[in-house]
Write a structure and sequence with these properties.
alpha+beta; Thiol Ester Dehydrase, Chain A; 2 domains; eleven-stranded antiparallel β-sheet
């Protein structure tokens, strides 16, 4: 692809956020998301407490439009979901009316494409911060000779952990209708997750599982290993999406203790592989609040 002129990138949009969009949290919507991701934690399954990656649902419609309005029109549909980084400040529970806004906060040209970072902010009507999240869209083959705004968030897998004892190894399976259930629960109706012919027409082997659905599965592994009694102890969850998986696949998440943050929060590094041997999640990082002694 030829180099896009800098003027074709709407750089003036960096740091500008959309108007807040309201979202009413209901027990039924929370429980449906837990069911779609096979989440068996009783607080999630009952709809009493939203699973971590449910945080994408209130902000979903405010993340993609700013990104697509920012890039040159001819590359808008080439985007792939590169990274996702959630920062959890307070639980999402039924009865809340949340306000979410999103905007492009960074853009970085690389040798293989362009990374565009969108930040989503979810708050209560009273202004209490609930979740901050960063979605990185990667436009493979696009060219831009500059970097502007915030850098990518840092969650690289620590090389020192290679070969060390693992905290846990957890294998999970999808269901034949996983993508249909997840599409309904999340609002993500992209046809590559629902229509086998469409998926194959764009070079995929068939219907693929949503990346955020896979991420939700890994959050289950983190919670089961680090904070099963209190899922709200999970304060951050960040990943890099590496390969796709299909509903017929199984995935295995490998988790390591990775020390603590400067604030004393426990760090867990992880990677997730499919049964085909592909590493589907790289540079996974969870931060978990330590229980009082």
């Amino acid at each position: 692809m030829s180099t896009q002129a800098i003027s074709e990138w709407k750089l003036e949009r960096i740091g500008k956020f959309s108007e807040p969009k309201p979202f009413r949290v209901t027990r039924e919507r929370v429980a449906a998301y837990a069911e779609a991701t096979n989440d068996e934690h009783p607080l999630h399954r009952s709809g009493e407490l939203a699973p971590p990656v449910f945080a994408i649902v209130p902000v979903f419609d405010t993340l993609t439009p700013p990104m697509l309005a920012f890039v040159p029109g001819e590359i808008a549909m080439t985007v792939v979901h590169g990274e996702q980084d959630f920062r959890f400040h307070a639980p999402i529970v039924p009865g809340q009316t949340l306000l979410s806004r999103g905007g492009v906060v960074g853009v970085h040209g690389t040798s293989t494409g362009v990374q565009v970072i969108v930040k989503g902010v979810t708050e209560t009507g009273a202004g209490e911060l609930i979740v901050e999240q960063y979605l990185t869209g990667f436009f493979r083959g696009a060219q831009l000779d500059l970097s502007a705004g915030v850098p990518l968030t840092q969650h690289r897998f620590p090389a020192r952990l290679r070969g060390s004892d693992r905290l846990a190894v957890i294998t999970q399976t999808f269901d034949p209708d996983t993508t249909e259930r997840y599409s309904r629960a999340s609002g993500d109706q992209m046809p590559i997750h629902l229509d086998d012919q469409v998926a194959k027409s764009v070079g995929l082997p068939g219907i693929i599982v949503h990346g955020l659905c896979t991420m939700a599965y890994t959050s289950r592994a983190v919670i089961a290993s680090a904070c099963p009694e209190d899922p709200t102890g999970l304060r951050r969850l960040a990943v890099r999406f590496s390969k796709t998986v299909q509903p017929s696949d199984s995935i295995t998440t490998f988790l390591w203790n990775a020390g603590t943050t400067a604030e004393g929060t426990r760090k867990i590094a992880y990677e997730t592989a499919s049964n085909s041997g592909d590493m589907v999640i790289k540079d996974g990082l969870a931060e978990v609040r330590q229980s009082p002694a």
